[in-house]
Amino acid sequence: MKTKLPSLITKSRYLFFFISFLFSFPTFADVGCGSIEGFEFTNGHESVAIADGDTYVFNDLPGHFFVNVLSHGDSQSVKYIVENLDTGHKYVIIENTRPYTFPAGNGDWYLGNGKFKVTANLYRYNFGFGICDTKTIIFTIGDEACTADAGTLQATERNVTLTGDSAMLRAT
Prior knowledge:
The protein is 8% helix and 40% strand. It is mainly beta. The strands form three sheets. A five-stranded mixed beta sheet has the order 3-9-8-5-6, with no helix packed on it. A four-stranded antiparallel beta sheet has the order 2-1-4-7, with no helix packed on it. A hairpin with a 5-residue loop joins β5 (77-84) and β6 (90-95). The N and C termini lie far apart (113 Å). Mean pLDDT is 83; it is low at 25-29.
């Protein structure tokens, strides 16, 4: 009958683990990463800065515009999550080349008018790996800016009668 020897870790295994350990440190090093400075409507020649909560008239924006994230520092991709708050539709794209635009590839804005929430995630690497920064803005795009004064109403009768599920009010 053979005697079984205990498993011994050889010196070469120790050396392999030591070298692997040393080379793993650069993997965890803090590498420079970019940041999101803001957003703009642009067509590549003209641009309008986008401010959170503002309303923009569609015809006052640059022709054939798209949304561009303004970034600073090292980055390789941006993931856009654009939600139409009026309809609830969400659109998600990852842009791997600068300028980082929605729609991708400097395409024309195709979502029309409405209230939009745009979240941009800036990544250190292509295809959305290694997140650096996130920024969210909400803005409205409409046909015209309304500057009308609604005025006031003065009731001509003191009492109002409810008939069914409606009421008639007379006023000037």
